[in-house]
Amino acid sequence: MAQTYDVVVIGAGPGGYIAAVRAAQLGFKVACVEKWRNAKGELALGGTCLNVGCIPSKALLGSSEVFEKTRHHLGEHGISADGVKLDLAKMLSRKDAIVSKMTKGVEFLFRKNKITWLKGHGRFVGAEDGAFRIEVLDEAAEGAAAKAPQLVDAVNVIIATGSKARHLPGVPVDNQLVCDSEGALSISEVPRRLGVIGAGVIGLELGSVWRRLGAEVTILEAMPTFLAAADAGVRKEAWKQFTRQGLKVHLGAQIGSVQAGKRGVKVDWTDDRGAAQVLECDRLVVSVGRVPNTDGLGLESIGLSVDERGFIPVDEGCRTAVPNVWAVGDVVRGPMLAHKAEDEGVMVAELIAGQKPHIDYNCIPWVIYTSPEIAWVGRTEEQLQAEGRAYKSGQFPFSINGRALGVAAPEGFVKVLADAATDEVLGVHVVSAAASDLVAEAVLAMEFKASAEDIGRVCHPHPSMSEVLREAALAATDKRSLNM
Predict the structure, then answer these.
(1) Residues in Cβ contact with 232 at an 8 Å cutoff, skipping those fewer than 6 apart
(2) Whether 462 is catalytic
């Protein structure tokens, strides 16, 4: 007889493991299927985010920023540091240790909440008597560890299998000379010349890491607009900062052929004027987005299908067309963000429990962990203009903020957009060393339908970077700034 669970979650990334934990907290008998194996061949929880995405990339971003500051920016503080050297192996080891700590932490959460980890690849093989039959097979197991498929039954199933790196047709990725976003986190030596295809979030972050460590970085972006999803003012400021740092970004670039040889990689491409160009580099990173990981799930066995892009259609509560089958995170509509997946995982677990949770997708923040960081929530000015909505805009720079000057981070600004009639905050855009933290206050304000004046009248600590958000909010309310 197959073991029966109230909830089976397929995938243990941010959406999956959070859904499993919340369901267990609500009293359900829960199992979670995960097949991920790390570079050592060990089974690990946490999915792409913890193993080869958010966590390791931010570890390298942090280490590379410390390295660059030590080499180039300590003098302004009256500090001399001679003979600064890079130990890349140790830096990568630190990254791996952080990943291990985080994935072991998820294992602890599973034990604490009595969640069964079903190790292997999970797929539907049918449904009967009000339950879904799921087959779990560890395809990577060898020898004595290899077992016949395990069968379990589930009353509710949450699909949280995440996404994988998109590859370009005709461009083979070996994660040696030509890397995807995962391979780019483990390059064993700093390339003298690094090419990056794609100037999105991941491309900019990875390009920033290796530029700080000493690589000459060239980024080829197919779109004619830099960071098209961001507010125009943010795009302009980001372009200024990144090009000043030394990133070479070519927009409107169309990739022709990519040839990897013993001495490096040759990329034939066409620029935005139609002229043929050649990029020669020692390593190439292909960072052109991600695609939903919905292959091999056996969806057809329960009458479920994906759309033309591989996503699983769901409603606002992440319900699929099959009752009691849910899907969250990168396999469904919306931004491919770990925190969005987490919130959807919590929502689904609570819906299964009969509660009435809700997600306002307009209040999902975006963050790019470059230096300075870029973060925003809500509408851009272009979106408000396209909607024909009357709005007010207030902006304040970090260049005259005492805390920003004290920590040598004067770059950037905060922009607050508010409804012209009601003063409700409609969008907040931040370029700053502290953008990822500052945007959280904006998200909270928008969730509670705060006005710009509400933010402006709240006491903020002085000196702090958060004062810039307050000043921008005051500017949006037509009230006189306290510091300009």
Answers:
(1) 380, 381, 382
(2) yes
